[in-house]
Amino acid sequence: MKLTETIQTADWKSEKHVPAITIDKEDGALKIKAFVGEEIEHPNTLEHHIAWIKVFFKPEGAKFPIEVGSYEFAAHGEEDLLTVPCAEATVKADKGGEVYVLSYCNIHGLWENSAEV
């Protein structure tokens, strides 16, 4: 089995893992926000948490996406501190393309979403 065959893209009824993406265009830049738990908050305990989110941008006509952000969440229910799995990146791009977001849940694996710009 290839690693890419383990990436999930559809949520289950009781939990939300697919990263949500919002993109705002401002002054020639793309402000990208990626987060897990848009409709139903994802638990972020030591036992069950989102460990990281990666953001990629593939410019129109390019062969490969470029990693524009990598975010690790190190505090998962430690004392009274809970990490909210949210990542933001700003990209200056001359043309449109596609944003890809990959997230990792320590129990439920890899999750992906994408959005066209």
TrEMBL record:
InterPro entries: Desulfoferrodoxin_Fe-bd_dom, Desulfoferrodoxin_Fe-bd_dom_sf, Desulfoferrodoxin_SOR. It is an enzyme of class 1 (oxidoreductase). GO terms for molecular function: superoxide reductase activity. Pfam families: Desulfoferrodox. Residues 10-113 form the Desulfoferrodoxin ferrous iron-binding domain. Keywords: Electron transport, Iron, Metal-binding, Oxidoreductase, Transport. Its EC number is 1.15.1.2. Belongs to the desulfoferrodoxin family. This is Superoxide reductase.
